[in-house]
Amino acid sequence: MTKHSSDRLSRRALVAGAAGTVALAAEPASAQRCPAVPPSRAKGPLVWLDMDQHELDESYDQSVYAFNQQHITDRRSERNEVVLKLLGKPDRVAYGAAEIEKVDIYKTRRANAPVMIYVHGGAWRNGRSAQNAYLAEPFVKAGAHFINVEFNNVGETDGDIGVMVEQCRRAVAWVYRNAASFGGDPNALYLSGHSSGGHLAGCVVITEWEKQGLPRDLLKGALLGSGMYDLKPARLSARSRYVKFTDAMEEALSAQRHLDRIHTPLVLVHGTLETPDFQRQTRDFDSALRAAGKPVTLIVAKGHNHFELGESLGNPYGVMGRAAFEMMKLTTVV
Amino acid sequence: MAADNPGSHPLTRRALVAGAAAGTLAFGAEPASAQRCPAVPPARTKGPLVWLEMDQQDIDEAYDNDVYAFNAKSINDRRVYNNQIVRDILDKPQRVAYGPSEIEKLDIYKTRRANAPVLVFIHGGSWRGGRADQFTVYSEPYVKAGANFVVLDFNNVGETNGDITPMVEQCRRAVAWVYRNAASFGANPNELYLISRSSGSHLSSCVLITEWEKQGLPRDIVKGAVLGSGMYDLKPVRLSKRSGFVKFTDAMEQELSAMRHIDRINAPLVVAHGTLETPEFQRQARDFAKALEAAGKPVKLVVARGYNHYEVGETIGHPYAVLGRAAFEMMKLDRA
Questions:
Q1: What SS3 state is found at A58?
Q2: Total structural domains in chain A?
Q3: Which of A41, A82, B28, B56 shows its CA 20 to 30 Å from the CA of B137?
Q4: CA closest to B29 among chain A residues
């Protein structure tokens, strides 16, 4: 899940090291050269489906399957700057007692407007709400409020994802209860998430809201991109080095095992260039939802890798942005 | 090199599995592996310089965008995928002839707004690929935001005996046709704009240096242009392996290098390139913007961080990113 380290070995760096007789053209653009087939190796014992440990670890490491991760991060940073200048700073409001427990509200001008809540990804261990400011612009312009949820990373919770799920749940309940305070319509509340944020959003969707006196269908729709809906294979992967999985956590936070608690129409998306197990997670969750008679739409986005798919939420004409606009019935027509 | 339909990466892991011995080798799964492992090119001895600090291989690679964007095929796949989505949503375009030959037609995607601005798109493809119906995908944001979107068809250089000039002439005639006939499809001829990428931006720049007054048209029929990832001086291109399919001549090089005819430009320009483009495509945009500025022409240079050649082009269909954002601003369109 780390940034692609080989990007750092630029041709320029090589020039510096060589005596000038070696020809090395120029720009860091060379970081995008040459797709490679991994070296062949002897396969070990299977640990999950047809995968050995190495394959499963790679399947839960997006950077292995998306060479341009850093580039996508770069362009997101640049766009965040542009968007913050255009929209101004969001309202940052506490939904809980801890310092981190805040939501960033990007307000639209429309009164009593629908609300999109976004749960960021980052393999549970990276990401801050401000890094996703860029996603707000299309929604705000189209007449919806956009809310980025801030919550702890797993490095701050002693390896426990349960804490993060509870934060996201409390944030969503806060938005429902306080929507009117910022001009939002509590009855038009939608959720989205990407990657590990897709996992967390999946857990929000299985919340038993009725136990806290809230309507079961508090969320009118959820858009889950590139997520994980059963933690078993994630637990078997290298991710268990920084997430302290337990049997109870695996059971409670695998949305696919609690389909009966889902009262929200779902849109599930994955890209065709994602890792094998990320593709499978979405596919299997979709099949399970269908089998249980739950309303679900599956979108398989051709030619998108993990990060490119997440980026598309910020484009009303891209895969996830289009799905969100349709779900919320936002119009792009002037 | 074929920018629109780049060469595939045939050696997939799946293919290797098929070829390998009975299951003892581990090869994960999906064609996603095509996106693995960016690599530094092998060191080699540099030959004599042919252009700036480049030897022949350097310049050949600098005019071969696939070398610097190994996800070219994936981006093309995604354009095809999104193109179909948009074709299913929008009404079929009105296809109208702007000239006598079969190819000389343009596709008009109409907006509902009356007397609306019109954006003319000139496609890329290294001059040798691309057809209008592949670019429906870019039309939707504009049509929905209240602008007409027109996609030009014109010959590829493989059909013109290696001559780019007829392609430039076709684009010029098409733009003049749009100006003269805008009212016929509800557009305002006084709000005519251009957008393009790659070799399309070379062609656009040649449209921009047209001496319209010689055919009785106002010099400023084009009110603005967004040029992504283009070429504005043909000399280095001529020195590259692109001369293998373009029959460059001294006259063509001189006539069709917009950089050398800056005095004839009468429209404000946005010139854009990505930071992950080839060194030459970055330099072409930079130098053109500099020359325009030095000549006192209104120009804005957009350097898109983290975008390669094809990713810059993709943003034509994205009102909130590089080229799309620039076009919306240029045309003063409201977004979404």
A1: helix
A2: 2
A3: A82
A4: A276
